[in-house]
Design brief:
The structure is a single chain. With about 525 residues, the chain is mostly helical. The protein has one domain. The protein has 19 helices and no strands. It is globular and about 55 Å long.
Length: about 525
């Protein structure tokens, strides 16, 4: 377990290094774009091109199918089968890119004829953005097989480099928009389309040069049975992922229909904040995912479940470390970041972060289910749950409930009920002990949040809104989290690994000082 842990920690370190650079760039880019486009045009981009913000999620969700088979074979040590998997995946995603592009093209007709609430003078710009979105989506889908290959090889160093490059390209686009004399929304939409093409080109060149399984020869490596198996798995996986994507974009459409583009701006800011803070836990999960699947491929089910539970625990701790003080200080932090804070942005950010924290309790449980291969049941139930928030939110908005009710419904359907469904299927298919889950994950994590909130509220009661109160809140939540995690949450093996890493780095520092 120690060698596995060290490998995960090393890969997580690469991803954190990338994140430390890209987070600042991304937040500054959002501010620059918001100031350049204005609140109304930024809201239009968020609703019309809102799917662009979710392409990373779509990409990861679709890649998980290919990555599952790649990592499983990596655990088996079957290189020939990996070549077959890559070629079948390449064909599937090329066809899927065409289907997705056609579906978006047809959907655009309905979006711009009665569904979207967009000012008449901005319709043309919105259509250009939507057309750019279609092209961008197709490039993103076609990059999935290459993402899966690098995940299977746990090449997080490359991901870090490409992630930094992608952020720099987005920053360049933001500067162009700030100084262009053309329609800024149109320029932004078109230039954002070029980024997935550049990334796809780089990934393709790198993978074909460094990995032997990346050989495009469908006739030589065709396998009908493997094609059927992968298509079935990818189909059920895509159904579950599609429902989540439709739910998020559908809620944006419902919010736009009842409240207009300014509320979409508030939603876009909430998504941006949540997405940036989630990168801290996602970095660790990206490094841990291949370990879970490889463990199943090598027949080590004990390590698979152990890694899954540890993933939930650490994801919850990492996100809580950043999200809880942010929830407490949201008004002040948004003023520092945006100066002029759009209406409802504060409440939306707080509820979105709460939803993300709850979802961490079962975030890697699904990876264990995917690793064993039978995902039909959970995908079916998750897809049904995914559509419920759209229907319920539309009903509540129709009866004049406030906008934040959308997030409350989302938390109940996706976070609580969806988490229970994941636990049920993990118990059924992977022999997870619910008592063990409650003892190791649920109760300690909920107690951690309670302790952090208790100490985080102390500066709120003593000081007025200021930088000193922000520092006090961060300090008390951090100290309480570290002490509680070390005393209650972490096991003896985890403490030994952390102590070993600390001692090793301490010796290196002392060596360089001398």
């Amino acid at each position: 377990m120690s060698s596995t842990a060290n490998r995960v920690i090393k890969n997580t370190g690469y991803l954190y290094a990338k994140m430390g650079i890209t987070m600042f760039i991304s937040l500054y880019t959002t501010r620059l774009i918001l100031n350049s486009l204005g609140a109304s045009d930024f809201g239009i981009f968020n609703i019309v091109g809102g799917a662009i913000a979710m392409l990373g999620f779509l990409n990861a969700a679709m890649a998980s199918a290919t990555q599952r088979f790649m990592s499983y074979c990596e655990g088996e040590g079957n290189k020939e089968k990996q070549k077959r998997i890559f070629n079948i995946s390449f064909i599937l995603h090329f066809c899927l890119a065409f289907i997705v592009g056609l579906a978006l093209l047809i959907s655009g007709y309905f979006f711009f004829n009665g569904i979207l609430n967009i000012p008449g003078e901005r319709i043309f710009a919105a259509k250009v953005v939507y057309g750019s979105l279609i092209v961008s989506t197709m490039f993103t889908v076609m990059s999935v097989p290459y993402n899966a290959v690098m995940n299977a090889h746990e090449n997080m160093k490359y991901f870090a480099i490409v992630g930094i490059l992608e952020s720099l390209l987005k920053l360049t686009v933001a500067f162009v928009c700030a100084y262009t004399s053309f329609d800024k929304l149109i320029v932004y939409g078109i230039l954002m389309t070029c980024i997935p093409l550049i990334i796809l080109t780089i990934m393709r060149i790198y993978c074909h040069k460094h990995y032997t399984e990346c050989i495009i020869s469908p006739r030589m490596y065709w396998n009908r049975q493997l094609m059927k198996e992968m298509t079935t798995f990818a189909g059920w996986n895509f159904l579950g992922s599609l429902s989540s994507i439709v739910s998020q974009y559908g809620l944006s459409v419902v919010l736009n229909h009842f409240w207009g583009t300014l509320l979409n701006t508030a939603q876009g800011i909430a998504n941006q904040i949540s997405g940036q803070l989630m990168t801290f836990s996602n970095a660790m999960l990206t490094a841990l995912g291949p370990v879970i699947t490889k463990s199943r491929g090598s027949g080590n089910n004990v390590l698979m479940l152990q890694a899954s539970l540890l993933g939930c625990k650490y994801a919850y701790i990492i996100l809580s470390f950043f999200a809880i003080p942010f929830i407490l200080e949201t008004p002040y932090l948004l003023k520092l970041w945006l100066k002029d804070v759009p209406e409802w942005s504060i409440v939306f950010c707080q509820l979105q972060l709460l939803r993300s924290i709850i979802e961490q309790l079962t975030v890697t449980i699904g990876a264990a289910i995917a690793a064993q291969g039978n995902i039909k049941g959970i995908s079916l139930y998750k897809s049904i749950l995914g559509f419920q928030p759209i229907i319920l939110t539309a009903i509540f908005f129709y009866y004049s409930f406030p906008p934040y009710v959308m997030y409350i419904i989302w938390i109940i359907c996706g976070g609580i009920i969806g988490g229970c469904v994941s636990l049920y299927y993990t118990r059924k298919l992977c022999d997870l002990s619910l008592r063990q889950y409650a003892k190791v994950i649920l109760l300690p994590c909920l107690m951690l949040s309670t302790v952090m909130l208790f100490f985080g509220f102390i500066p709120q009661l003593i000081f007025s809104e200021s930088f000193y109160r922000l520092m006090g809140t961060c300090l008390l939540t951090t100290v309480s989290m570290v002490i509680f995690s070390w005393k209650i949450i972490l096991g003896q093996t985890e403490k030994k690994i952390i102590t070993s890493i600390f001692q090793k780095n301490k010796r290196k520092v002392c060596f360089w000082i001398k």
